[in-house]
Each structure stands twice: as C-alpha cells, then as structure tokens.
Design a protein that fits this description.
single chain; about 525 residues; alpha/beta; 7-stranded mixed sheet; two-stranded antiparallel sheet; 13 strands; globular; disordered C terminus
Length: about 525
C-alpha cells in the first residue's frame, strides 16, 4: 500500500516536471541530448586555429594551444530576442591567434578560380538564382572583392580636420592599391572622382582654412579602376570597376536629408533629390568640379570602353558602393545603361544602400538589364530608408499602391545577413556598428546559407572588423578603431621637433592629369593607354 502511494507521488512529480518542460519549450529527450553533447565536447575538445593542418595544433612556441570556454563579461547582459554567445558555435579564433607566429599563420587569400566560363552567371545574368542560399563560393569571393574596393574609399580618405588636404585621398591613384594591399585583385586605378553639393551647411560645419593647394568645395568621392591583362584572362572579360564612398562630409549628410523625389527621365522615373544633387552638382568656379561626378565617371567609362572595344575585348562594368555610395552606384549604372550600349554587362554590388528611386525607376533598371545585388544586414536601419514608416504601411496594400510614382522601392536581388550569426561580434545595440562596411564584409565571408551558422573556415582577417568600430568581442583583445595615421600625422624631424610633414608632391590632389587626354595621335594612343591603364 505504501509502495503504491509513493509510486503515485513520484508519477505526480514527474508529470509536473514534464509539464514545466513542455511549457518552457524543451523535451526531456532534448535536454538529455544537450548534456550528452556537452560531455562529448569536453572529451574531444579541439581548437580550430589559423594553422594549416591539425599537426600544428599540438603546440606553438613554448606552450600548448588550449581553447578555454567563453566567459561572459560581467558588464554584458543577454539581449532579449538574440541568441546567447555560448549557444553559438565555438570560436575558430581566440586572442592567441592574433599574435604573429610566423609560419604558423595561414594566408587570408582565398583560392582564385578561373571564371571565364561562368562570369555572367556569377554577376547576375539569372539574378543570382540558386547562387545565394546556399551561397556559391565564387559569388562570395566576388562580393568581398568589390566590397574591398568600396572600403578603399574610406581607408584612403583624409579625415584630418587639421590637414590642408582634408577631404582628399591621401595617395595618388598609382599608389592607392599598393598602400591598401589591394594589388592582389589585379586591378589598376585609372581616375579619381570628385563630388560637391549645392547645400549651404552652417558656418560651424565649415572645413578649416585649407590654403591654396586643395578645394573648399569638393571631396574625393571614389575612383574608376580596370582589370589588368592576367586578371582579365582569369575572369573572362575586361572589367571596369567604379567604387563610390559613403557619407563622410557634413555637406553630404545634409544632402541625405533631402528625401523628396525628382524626375530624371521619361515615364515617371524619379530618384531622391539629395543623392541626385550630389551626383550631378558642378560649379564653374571650382577646381575639381567643373564637371560633375556623373560627367567625370561617364567620360572615363567612354574612354576605357572605346579603347578596349577597339581591341576586340568583352567589357563589363561593375559598380560598387556602401551606404550613400550604393545609391550613387545605382545612378551610375542607370546612366551607363542608358548611354553606353557597347557595354557587354552591367552589374551593381552595393552594401547597406538606401532606397534610391520610385517604382518607375525600379522598372526602368530592370528594362535596361542592369543586374543588382544588394547586400544588407537585418539590424542595419539604412537600407530601410527613405520611407522607413510609410513604405512599411503601404506594403500591406501593395495591390493598390504598386503604381504610385511617389513610393520608394528597392531595386534588384537582396542578400540578407544577420549580426547574430557571427560568434566574433558583440551583441550590443550599435546602429553605427550595424552599418559598418567591414562588418558587412566579415558577415559575407562567413555566410553559408540562411539556415547555417558562421563558417568555421572563413579566411578574411577578423581583426579588420575593429578597423573603424568596436564590434569584436573582448575575448579577442583587438583594440577598437585601430586604423589610424601614426601619431595622428605628426613626425619627429631631424631637429628633434614633432611637426606636420608636407605631403609628397605626387600625392597632392590635382585637377589636372587625372586622366589622359582624349585627343591623342593614333600612333601614340596604344602606348599612352598602356601606361595609363
């Protein structure tokens, strides 16, 4: 009798516990599986380092490499709706991997396959159908390549408000890729692009006195580059790349706030007037913008296209940019598709780009055959503007509003990334961090598919994330905002004084000599272009 009563009590307890487990969303079988998995991981713990083989995991230097479990920082509180760091995959890299150990480190360069037979498909001939989820490795590498071209516009920009050349590029076009370690891609810069705005900013936003050597109106906005002979052979055509910078200067921020639509063509095609104003603004009294940014880039594209088509080559145009640069990339592709019919293929790869035009603009881009891949991060707010509120409401009534000419619409195919998938990124709420281009490139490099975690063999250097941000977890011990000019530009001269050095003459921006003359004698054209290209 007593045994029967105790059995009933035990069954009651078990049923209560089971109910609690069901309410919490777990089953006993799942809980048991988790604990058995953790025990197995303790027995077979491996540390995935940068080492090229498991033989090198046995020990580096004097000590052995041991992976310690992640410790949650006292100051960090788990965010609701996001997975805890511990629930993600184990880190491939730890702080010890960022110490230079010579031969034990693996290169960050990925394999470079021959794309001559597949480049059209990789660049969106079929709108990247079946190539993004899961992502094709060649597509991933191409996205990262053009993302690094866009990142160069930030890395080489002179942000120093005390500099006489604030707003320019710190290097001349012949040195740009050498200084930024981008020669691996096999492209050469042929022209710098400058832009200005017609926005009157408050006097307290004015640039400091910049003397006579640089412009008070213009800023370096991007560049045109072209693939070299060996790279062109690998990728199957001569590729012209145009890279645009995102918003940096105060006048550019003010332009971004002008969100009304203005017409740019027939059929009700309209785009945001702030983006279009920056793209087309020029002034006869300026040194660098007697031609608008649009005219500068179109002039260079025509020159390159005429030269390479004259040699019987296939020529593609790939435009890239981040944030505001992504908007300018769309406008460039629109102009090129409208005025340069000899181009064999036009594609856009943008990062964190806002909406640019209305539905008619989207339809016109599709009609022109421009292939557009928009890379966005789910937590980034910039791709949701302009029209972050009204577009969300109107989406519910798409059948009624799809033809409205004043409604903003995105163009192209979307590749959506998620901050929570990387085990290396903090879980803090950081709008600037969510929009950072290096974070975009980090997530792209680790992306496999929408249902997978960050790939363990991602090759791109994780430390680059903190170049202009503080998004890496503290366990990696990478300093925040580490990409700086040494000593903030001061140098110790021969007289024992800390001074601001003069910029090398060849690196001083000049409105002249940026592109070769278009009026060359036929017998000199080939030799001259070989030097310039």
């Amino acid at each position: 009798m007593e045994l029967e009563e105790s059995k009933k009590v035990m069954e009651k307890r078990k049923s209560k516990t089971t109910k609690r487990a069901r309410r919490s969303g777990f089953s006993w079988r799942a809980i048991k599986r988790v604990f058995s998995w953790r025990a197995m991981m303790k027995r077979h713990r491996l540390h995935m380092t940068c080492a090229p083989s498991f033989k090198q995991l046995s020990g580096i230097g004097d000590g052995r490499v041991v992976a310690s479990p992640l410790q949650k920082l006292p100051s960090e509180k788990p965010k609701s709706g996001l997975k805890k760091l511990k629930s993600l995959m184990r880190l491939t890299y730890t702080a010890s991997d960022f110490i230079d150990r010579g031969n034990h480190m693996t290169p960050t360069r990925s394999p470079r396959e021959n794309l001559s037979a597949t480049w059209r498909e990789i660049h969106g001939q079929n709108n990247w159908e079946n190539l993004l989820d899961p992502i094709n490795p060649c597509v991933r590498r191409e996205i990262v390549k053009y993302g690094e071209f866009a990142q160069a516009t930030y890395d080489a920009f002179d942000y120093d408000s005390f500099s006489d050349f604030c707003g320019s590029c710190r290097y001349n076009r012949h040195k740009l890729f050498d200084e930024l370690h981008l020669t691996k891609h096999g492209y050469k810069v042929t022209k710098y692009i400058y832009a200005m705005t017609n926005v009157d900013v408050p006097s307290w936003f004015d640039r400091p006195n910049t003397g006579e050597t640089w412009s008070k109106d213009s800023n370096w906005m991007g560049y045109v580059a072209v693939s070299g002979d060996s790279e062109s052979q690998r990728i199957g055509r001569r590729d012209i790349a145009v890279a645009w910078r995102g918003t940096v200067a105060p006048s550019e921020w003010f332009s971004n706030t002008k969100t009304s639509l203005e017409p740019i063509g027939d059929g009700g095609v309209k785009v945001e007037c702030g983006f279009h104003g920056l793209y087309t603004c020029k002034g006869e009294t300026t040194r660098y913008n007697k031609l608008s940014a649009a005219e500068q880039v179109m002039q260079e594209l025509k020159r390159l296209l005429e030269f390479f088509k004259g040699r019987g080559e296939e020529v593609s145009l790939t435009v890239t940019g981040h944030s505001l640069g992504g908007a300018l990339a769309l406008l460039t592709a629109y102009d090129a598709a409208s005025s340069l019919p000899d181009l064999d293929h036009i594609s856009v790869i943008s990062f964190g780009a806002p909406r640019v035009g209305n539905i008619a603009f989207r339809d016109k881009m599709n009609e022109l055959g421009v292939k557009i891949l928009r890379v966005v991060i789910r937590q980034d707010i910039v791709p949701k503007v302009p029209g972050i509120i009204i577009n969300k409401i109107l989406r519910q009534f798409h059948a009624l509003t799809r033809r409205l000419k004043w409604v903003y619409r995105h163009v192209g195919t979307e590749l959506k990334l998620d901050m929570s998938l990387s085990p290396y990124l903090k879980r803090d709420f950081d709008l600037a961090g969510f929009h950072n281009l290096e974070v975009y490139l980090h997530l792209t490099d680790g992306y496999q598919c929408s249902q997978s975690k960050f790939r363990w063999n991602a090759r791109r250097d994780v430390a680059l994330v903190n170049k202009f941000s503080d998004m890496l977890i503290k366990e990696l011990r990478i300093p925040e905002n580490w990409f700086q000019v040494p000593n903030k530009g001061l140098v110790f001269n021969q007289h024992g004084r800390w001074v601001k050095p003069c910029r090398d003459q060849e690196d001083i921006p000049s409105p002249f000599g940026e592109a070769p003359s278009l009026h060359l004698a036929p017998e000199n054209m080939h030799a001259h272009n070989r030097l310039q290209v």
